[in-house]
Write a structure and sequence with these properties.
Radius of gyration: 15 Å
Helix content: 40-55%
Structural class: alpha/beta
Order of helices and strands: EHEHEHEHEHEHHEH
Distance between the termini: 15 Å
Number of strands: 7
Strand content: 15-25%
């Protein structure tokens, strides 16, 4: 199975973010799961990809041509898909993945996470979606989502499409469990 990970192209302020990204990359490789991500060599994306590659894992990057031209594409991946636009990038990442996980990141990470959630709500895919709450990073987002439920803008069953956990192992188990036969 392949896990699509959305995360920052910046390292963040706390070392735990980079350490956790590297741990995720290693863990996926050691468990025999492929990694699909944004194809960058910098920030959390680069740390995660480097660790997965070093552990012998399959790592597939998907990056828009404009970012390749800025020389941030990772050169050491199993595969690198170069696409024309960010929209194409997200669609390709969805098609290559069995589940989605967000790590800390900025606007791009939130955009990708919410698009995966929206596509799930609309029935475009039925793949599990999670967020690893590294260092409490997603706590405020969880509060905002729960507030949206309380105010009647998000239905409880749609809120439940996002699994958030501070613990990696149970989160990966929930996201990458084999589908029932």
């Amino acid at each position: 199975m392949r896990l699509c990970v959305f995360c920052g192209s910046a390292p963040g302020r706390r070392p735990i973010y980079r350490e956790s990204a590297a741990l995720l990359g290693r863990t996926l490789a050691e468990r025999g799961h492929g990694l699909v991500y944004g194809g960058s060599s910098i920030g959390l994306m680069g740390a995660m990809a480097d660790a997965a590659v070093a552990a012998g894992g399959e790592v597939i990057g998907v990056i828009p041509r404009s970012m390749v031209d800025r020389e941030i594409a990772h050169a050491g991946l199993t595969e690198l898909h170069v696409v024309g636009t960010m929209h194409e990038r997200k669609a390709r990442m969805v098609s290559l993945s069995d589940a989605f996980l967000a790590l800390p990141g900025g606007h791009g990470t939130f955009d990708e996470l919410f698009e995966a959630l929206t596509w799930s709500q609309l029935g475009i895919h039925a793949k599990p979606i999670g967020a690893w709450d590294v260092g409490g990073y997603f706590g405020p987002l969880v509060l905002a989502l729960d507030h949206a439920v309380a105010e009647g803008f998000v239905r409880p069953h749609d809120r439940a499409r996002l699994t958030v956990s501070a613990e990696l192992d149970p989160l990966l188990t929930a996201l990458l469990a084999p589908a029932p036969a």
